[in-house]
Structure formats: C-alpha cells, structure tokens
User: Fold these one by one.
Assistant:
Number 1:
Amino acid sequence: MRKASCWRYRERMWWCSGPSENFALTTGSEAWRTRAATKKAMSVRHATKDDLEQVLEIEELTFSDPWGYYNFQAALEDIFLVFAEQEIYGFLVAVCCHRDTRGAIVKVGVHPEHRRQGIATRLLETALRTLQNKGMLDVCLIVEITRQQAIQLYKKLGFKITKIINMSYEDDMSDDSFYEMKLNFSPN
C-alpha cells in the first residue's frame, strides 16, 4: 500500500490532522461492527480497473465536484472497495497516512437508487475493519456540513466531530464548510 501523509486525491489538500481525542471505543460497544441491512446478498470486494466506469457514474450522480478517471485509477493502489451484486451500487476509498498510524476515509458514494439499504454502512464497516487490522490507531474523514444523512451514519458508527473547517475559494467565489470527524480504535 502506498503511504500518504494527507489526502492527495483532490486539488484541495485535506490533512488528517489534529491531536488524538479520547474517543476510543470500548470492547463490546464497537458501534461500527454493527450488522448492515440484509435485504440483499451483500458483497464487498476490492475494486478493479474494470469497475471504474460504473464507479464514475455513481461519482457523477453523487458529488457536485466529481473525481475523474485518473483519480480513481490511482486509488486502486489504496483501499478501494466496491459493493456489488451484478452491478456496482457503491464504493469507498480509504488510505493509510501519518506514518501508518492514521487511516482516512477519502470518499464514499452510493448510487441514488440504492441508498438507505445499508450499502454505505457495509462499505464503512469493511474499511474500518481493514484499517484496524493494518494497525491504524484512528480514522478521520471530512464531510460537508450539508450532508446530514452521512454525518448521522458516521456518528452511528462511532465517529465524533473534532473540527469545523471553513473554506473560501478565490477561483469560484464559493464558501464551503466541512466537519472533520474521527474514530479512535481502542487498544486490543
């Protein structure tokens, strides 16, 4: 796995920063290990280059500032998961950063027709388990403040808001606000 000290996939650099908060989960209360919805036979697997066309479709339907093909192609070297049955319904990209002690959830997307079925939960649970198995002490993510359903899901899985990030862009005259959220893994 390629090591990263920050989230490099966008033109705007997101740093996984800040002091470690004491939000460690205790044994038996690991909320992120909950069972996802079982309406469908769920399959989470590592993405391949053949998946990128469907992932790009979901990306464009989900985000106002979508990644391009080469961003996802580079992500194949990291933790890049897809939720698939016969076609892909969702994806997640994560990285290990900060001297391989901190993980970062970089992107989660679910096709609009398949939301609220446990797909994002299953992708996140798999990614969190993978990051913990790789020895990460915590996991951070950045989420737009306006994405309330995503924020509620992250909180349900044990993430805590650690920082508010306000950004202004001179090039497009827009202002965006984000939460940095963090989940600390308890020592085993």
Number 2:
Amino acid sequence: MATQNEREFRLIVPRTDNSGNLIRTSVFQDVAQTLTNRFNGVTIYPRVGGCFRNDSGGIDCDLSVEFQVVVQGPPAQLQAAQQFMVGLATRLGNELGQESMFEQQDLASRTQFVPTKRAPAAAPELQSGQKISRTPEALIRRLIQGSS
C-alpha cells in the first residue's frame, strides 16, 4: 500500500488519431523525455488496447501507449505533479484532437527501488551477444515500431 507521500500517475496516449492516422513516433519520444525530465524516469507500456462507444453508437478500439511515473514527496509536491500530469494530458489531447485523455493518479501501490550491485555488464553467460542502442529515441522506436 502506498504511503500518503507517494503517487503513481498514468497517462494513456492513443497511437492513432480519430481518423485512424498513426501518430508520429516523435510525439511519444517527446512525452517520454518530458516525463523523464520532470520526474527522473518513466515506465512505458507500448501496447495497451481499449475500446469505447463512438458518437454513432458503434464501438471503436485503439492501440495506445501508457506512460507511468511514481512520485514521492510532501503533499505540495504531489499536488504539483498532479497539475503537471493534467496539463500534459490536456496539451496532448488538444494537439491530437481527442475528446478526452486518460490520466490517473493512484495510491494503491508501494514502490521501492531495491539497491543492488551495479556492474558495467551482465555476466557473459547471461548476454545474448546482441548489442542495442540505449538512447531514448532508440527505445521509443523499438517499443512503438517493434524493431530491435
């Protein structure tokens, strides 16, 4: 259970606009960079699906990207984080032409970063032999486009 001084925030951003046009990967890179700059880290779930009833009464389904951050601090810091996330959701929703955006604040979890021993690389027997770029752009490209 999260303490009163910890919140988990989620923002879901659609991968397509209301006409089915794919959103540029750079939009997701910008969101990831913005959240990392603000909260020192972000977890990205690149393929979340959801369905909703459209204006015609039919059902539309979308693939989206979920961004998650955890914030720990005094109530004023948590309030500022909530305002930041709502502002980001509003900006993105307006830019992407969405009727609304999913932004959630949750205190139903406890987050901990367990200290371990850092090393320059995993043990050789655990390595696959394939090296990949660890830049934010490369990660977003792999997550969104499915390339390695």
